[in-house]
Amino acid sequence: xxxxxxxxxxxxxxxxxxxxxxxxxxxxxxxxxxxxxxxxxxxxxxxxxxxxxxxxxxxxxxxxxxxxxxxxxxxxxxxxxxxxxxxxxxxxxxxxxxxxxxxxxxxxxxxxxxxxxxxxxxxxxxxxxxxxxxxxxxxxxxxxxxxxxxxxxxxxxxxxxxxxxxxxxxxxxxxxxxxxxxxxxxxxxxxxxxxxxxxxxxxxxxxxxxxxxxxxxxxxxxxxxxxxxxxxxxxxxxxxxxxxxxxxxxxxxxxxxxxxxxxxxxxxxxxxxxxxxxxxxxxxxxxxxxxxxxxxxxxxxxxxxxxxxxxxxxxxxxxxxxxxxxxxxxxxxxxxxxxxxxxxxxxxxxx
DNA sequence: AAGTCGGGGGA
DNA sequence: TCCCCAGACTT
Length: 351
Description:
The chain has helices at residues 7-17, 29-39, 44-57, 61-66, 69-76, 83-98, 107-112, 118-129, 138-147, 157-170, 176-189, 209-212, 270-279, 341-348; strands at residues 229-240, 243-248, 259-260, 263-265, 284-296, 300-311, 323-326.
C-alpha cells in the first residue's frame, strides 16, 4: 500500500521546488493537453522549443483542427512518434465537432479521444480541471516502486493499474493536479533512475522502504528489452540541377506521412541503383557515392549507404511518386525526419 | 502480453 | 554502447 503520509510532504516540496515550465504559465486545457502529448516518452528540455513554436502557429484547438497535415508534421519534425500529433488533430476535430471546441472536463470522455490514454487523461483532468484522478507515468511508477519497495516489473500493466488504484485512494481532493505533478517532479529531479537518486534531498526519505533497506539502487525492476533488428538501406539523392527528388511515406507505419529521399531495402550495387532510377522515369547521368550513415529507432536500426544520382532534366516533373523540390524554395516546407539527417543536409546546404 | 512507434542526452 | 524519457495503440 502507498502510505497517505506522502501527500503533504510531496505538496510542500513541490511548491518549493517546482520548475518554471512554459506549460505551467497558462495551464488551459489545450495547453496542458499539448504539453502532455509532447512529453510522452520525451524529455522536458526537448519539448520546450517545440511547445512554444507549436502554440505560436496553432494558438487554439480550432487552429489545430484545421491545420494541413504537412504543416502539422513539420511542426513536429524531430520530436518523433508522429502518430501523437496525427491523433491529436483527430481528437481536436472531435472536440470542435462534439464539444464546441473545448476539451470535456471529464476523465472518461477525455479517455475516449485518440491519443489520450490513462496517463494523459489523468494529467489533463487533474491539472487543467482539478478532477481527482491519478496520472501514472514512468516517473510515478519508479517513485512508488521505491517508496513501497515493490519487486514487480513496473512495465507490467498490473503494476500500473494497482498504482493508479492506490493513488486514487490518497489523492487530495483540493490539489489533485499539484499532487500528480509533485510525484512526477520528484521522479524527474530527485528520485532519478538507476543509481542516481538524490535521497538526501527527498521529502519522502524517512518513509521510503527502498531507502530504509538500502535498495534504491536495485529498484524499480524492469524486464529485459529485446534486441533491435538491423536493416540495411540504400538512400538516393536524385538530383536534377538544383532540384532533389523526395517522396511521401505511407500513411501507416514507421515515420508515417513524413517525406524521405527515395531509398531501397538492402545495399544495392550501382547497377541496381541505376536500374531503379530508370524505373522512376529518370535518366541517370552520373552516380556518386556519399557517406554511410546510421540511425537508431526504438526497435529497428538503419544502416544506410547513400548515393547521389545526377539525371537528365525531366519533362514531367512530379510523377512516379517523386516530388522534385528546389533546394532554395523547399526550406522549412517538407517534414523530413532525423533518420535522413546525414543526407538532408545536401538539400539544405551547398555541398 | 507483446510489438510498434523517434529522437536525443547522459552515463 | 546502453538506458531512459510526463505513453498510446495495435495485434
